[in-house]
What does this fold into?
Amino acid sequence: MRAVEFETRFGRLSGAVAGDLARTLRAGERVKSAGFLAIEARLATLDPHSRSNDLANIACRRSAANGDLINAYTEYEDVVREGARAEAAVAAAASSELASRGAALTEGGAVEDPTALRGALDAAFGGGPNWLVYDPGADKASLGEAELEVAERVRRYNAKRDDWRVMIEAPFLLEVRAGAFAHVYLDDVLVHRQTRMRLVRRNGQWVTRSQVGDWIFHSVARVEADGLAIILEARSQAALLAQVLAALLANGLEGRTLVFFTDGEESLREGVEATFADWPHQMWLDYYHVTQNLKGRLSMALRPGKVIDDTVKPKRFKNGKVKKSTVKRITRSKYHLRVLKACLWAGNVEGAIDYLRWLLRQEGELKAGGAEQIEGAISYLERKGARIPCYAIRWQFGLPNTSNPVEIANNTLVSRRQKKKGTSWCDDGSFALSGLTRAFEEGVAEELFTLGKVSLKLREKAADRGRTTGLEWIVDPELQGIVLDEVDLLDDVREAA
It folds into this structure.
């Protein structure tokens, strides 16, 4: 085994591969070693096929002189085929888990539809939800130690505020029992579908006509419990939720209360309610998406111009007059959005709605047609209010307030490779790349390429595992630094391009 230095049109790169990869079968033969396929797939998840094909040939010591080069189209076929295997392996693992664990819960019989478990799960919970229910109006004499701690934090938070709208006023729930909860983050990510070409008959002749491509939907989830996590991805929300349920069962989490975080998409809410109807759970909205929704509506509703920022105290001259240069001005939308964000951070949805109703009466603040946008914001909060928690107290106790973990997963699995300017994808190619990326990032590439299957066990989070290529089972551990340097260089070249 040796390190290889090679020149490409992208600069000087270094790579290290196991010696058996040099003895893989020739290009004309359709059978390749698991190691070659893994390196081929990993390079394809990092860079375009033409470039990853060049690197795969060089890394595996193939050359035109020996007549054993793998061409780009062959490499594309390999990636799509291995990606389909990865997708099928996850689906098979989920189906197997639902059939075995689900059958045990329902006392026999395979479970093909995850909603068939409804009504059979509640026996596994032994007491229902594990929430701390805090009511600001409760008698302190009746509160336990945990409730008293929360009450003190609420008191200190409210003491710094003089506007009731931005105070914590409403009851709320908190996950306080260690080992009693699992957090699930859900989201969708879209990439452009390739434009299709089809033949149509015009004036007696067949001509080629393009058919506009739309979007390919990737549904992504991240499940976390006890410091461990797993990322899941599927072609539909229904298939994704079935995988989530299977992962929960595979890790013995059926006794946990589930806490879901989404961006507010109704189809996700409906899917969760259908799949986990009898599983104690709560769904919260991501704070960022809630405030961004209101920000967009306010920008369309309010007149342009700036107002004085009354939160910044201006400096004064000795005679008491205000120094005009120290008076800070901000846009109207930013001024009013700041109040709404403070209300929502405290979980005071009613305060935010009251403020919007007051703003609706300020005709001098609104554009023509702006009232419709304000009414839309009020309707949005009325519909979503039950899923807006007290973010302030959750933050103080170190509990999640955002769907950012799944947004990061979206970027890792899909966006980083596929959401490039001018790129479009076929369905099989898109899901093949995301499925293979998941296998490498989750550390299950070895069992996928050697055994053709994957497990749904939660693993250490990526930040705890450290940087990895997913090829450790092929490459000598002593040369991992070289491989990681190569990945870094590929990232730098791609960003520069």
Q: What stands out?
A: The chain has a mean pLDDT of 76.
